[in-house]
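Appendix B. Raw example, untouched.
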Amino acid sequence: MRENVVIRTVSRLAVPFIQVFALYVIVHGASGAGGGFQGGVVFASSFILMMVAFGLVEVRRRIDNRGIMIFSVMGIAIYAGIGFLCLLLAGNFLEYGVIEAAVGIPHLHGYLLDAVEAGIGITVMAVMTSIIYDISDNRGEAP
């Protein structure tokens, strides 16, 4: 890939804004349009932009397959952990009111909903990034 200073500079400036916007979409998803899936895809798109600008090898140095696996497990653990906690407290899966009643903290369900959306977003970001890694052509570069 021929070096292009403009693409690399714009990518360095745009990636943090894309990632902050993805976090906004994840958090805002509880009360409006968006959510964990959409935010996770937007977050993964920042890695795709970095792959276009810097190449697959450079992006793999920042987040490798082990990091992707850690993020996948962490996101699933957040989602399933909150769901199973609701089941342990004699409620339905992801029935946030049961945890709120057991702990006695008002408006806790909103924070639990945000945590579940974050878990979904983390998982989707990791899986989408893994898919992009798997289908991208490294053109002879070492993985």
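End of appendix B.
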